[in-house]
């Protein structure tokens, strides 16, 4: 005998671009929306009875229809709107997860835009018919310090070759997610958290990327009382000193090889003491 385990289904990566036109002044929102629903899906899997299914095609259509009907403000608000709609309108759907990546555009004129080179803003919303959980974040925020980074005092066993260093480049591409303890001004909260991450990276005299990670997470919690927990994934984008001695040249920390892979991957969470439980926020 077998039993059906946890399952969910939805439409991944619906790319929706919403243009709002106020005369000649146009505004643009560019999202990648993934919806995922779960509920009474036992018969669907066991007997092929599809009566409980809100088709993934319908989920995709809803994204476009809501973009027209309601407009798009903060990604978190659009995600909450969709999640509540799917659960509240369908008796067979009990839980919704809506994840959104947002790409930024810089204005070049009234109706002209250039895709900006900034990080991607992210959010994931869960709704179970009663409560909503909101996780916001960013990915591909590339940061680099040319000094104020050391790495020494680590274990040396028979396989260790890494020399200790008192001065190195520290570089990473930040993936950060943060869990809100309630509703918020999502745009304001995002800018504060983003600034906190960058400021802590720049200000921390680093003895390891792990220490920098904790400083970054702590700074977000200090600056943003509405945030309960921060999770960080920090690839250590190694920069190795190039050996220029074959050319009779010295290299006192001026020319580096930017290595691609492998890379160190430092991951960790920083939580506010006594923060409310995460529920399904991270699922
Ligand atoms: O900041 C670092 N943390 C590590 O754990 C580590 N390991 C390594 O090889 N280099 C580094 N750098």
Summary of the model, kept short:
This protein is 24% helix and 35% strand.
Total number of helices: 5
User: Would you identify the regions where 5 or more consecutive residues have pLDDT less than 50?
Assistant: none
Please indicate the percent range of residues in DSSP E strands (runs of 2 or more): 25-35%
Mean pLDDT: 97
Q: How far from one another are the termini? A: 28 Å
Question: How many domain units?
Answer: 2
Bound small-molecule species: uric acid
Name of the CATH first level of the largest domain: Alpha Beta
CATH superfamily heading of the largest domain: Urate Oxidase
Helix percentage: 10-25%
CATH domain fold name of the largest domain:
Urate Oxidase
Q: What is the number of E strands? A: 12
Compute the CA-based radius of gyration: 23 Å
Please state the structural category.
alpha+beta
Main beta sheet strand tally, sense and closure? 8 strands, antiparallel
Shape-level CATH architecture of the largest domain: Roll
So what's the overall shape? globular
Element order, helices and strands? EEHHHEEEEEEHHEEEE
- How are the strands ordered across the major sheet? 1-2-3-6-7-8-9-12
Could you characterize what this model shows?
- The chain is of the alpha+beta class and 283 residues long.
- The protein folds into two domains: 1-128, Urate Oxidase, CATH 3.10.270; 131-283, Roll (Urate Oxidase), CATH 3.10.270.10.
- Helices cover 24% and strands 35% of the residues.
- It contains five helices and twelve strands.
- It has helices spanning 42-46, 56-70, 75-89, 186-203, 209-223, and strands at residues 14-22, 25-39, 93-103, 105-107, 113-115, 120-127, 132-145, 170-180, 227-236, 239-241, 256-258, 264-271.
- The strands form three sheets. The chain has an eight-stranded antiparallel sheet with strand order 1-2-3-6-7-8-9-12. Strands 4-5 form a two-stranded antiparallel ribbon. A two-stranded antiparallel ribbon has the order 10-11.
- Helix 4 runs antiparallel to helix 5 (209-223).
- The longest helix is centred in the C-terminal third of the chain and has 18 residues, at 186-203.
- The chain is globular.
- The structure holds uric acid.
- Uric acid binds next to helix 5.
- One of its GO terms (biological process) is purine nucleobase metabolic process.
- Keywords: Oxidoreductase, Purine metabolism.
- O2 binds at residues 56, 236.
- Urate binds at residues 56-57, 151, 168, 210, 236.
- The active site is at residues 11, 56, 238.
């Amino acid at each position: 005998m077998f039993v059906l385990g946890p399952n969910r289904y939805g439409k991944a990566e619906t790319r929706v671009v919403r243009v709002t036109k106020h005369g000649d002044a146009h505004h643009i929102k560019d999202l990648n929306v993934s919806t995922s629903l779960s509920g009474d899906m036992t018969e669907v899997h066991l007997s092929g009875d599809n009566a409980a299914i809100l088709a993934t095609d319908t989920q995709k259509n809803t994204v476009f229809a809501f973009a027209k009907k309601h407009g798009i403000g903060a990604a978190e608000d659009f995600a909450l709107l969709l999640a509540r709609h799917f659960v509240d309108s369908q008796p067979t759907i009990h839980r919704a997860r809506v994840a959104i990546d947002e790409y930024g555009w810089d204005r070049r004129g009234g109706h002209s835009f250039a895709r900006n080179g900034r990080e991607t803003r992210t959010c994931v919303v869960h709704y179970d018919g009663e409560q909503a959980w909101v996780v916001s974040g960013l990915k591909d925020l590339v940061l680099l310090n040319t000094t104020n980074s050391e790495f020494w005092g680590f274990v040396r066993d028979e396989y260790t070759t890494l020399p200790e260093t008192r001065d190195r480049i520290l570089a990473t591409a930040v993936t950060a997610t943060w869990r809100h303890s309630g509703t918020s001004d999502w745009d304001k909260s995002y800018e504060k958290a983003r600034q906190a991450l960058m400021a802590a990276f720049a200000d921390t005299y680093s003895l390891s990327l792990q220490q920098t990670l904790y400083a970054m997470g702590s700074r977000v919690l200090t600056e943003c009382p509405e945030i309960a927990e921060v999770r960080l994934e920090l690839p250590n984008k190694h920069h190795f000193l190039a050996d220029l001695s074959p050319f009779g040249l010295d290299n006192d920390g001026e020319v580096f090889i930017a290595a691609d892979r492998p890379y160190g991957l430092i991951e960790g969470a920083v939580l506010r003491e006594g923060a409310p439980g995460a529920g399904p926020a991270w699922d």
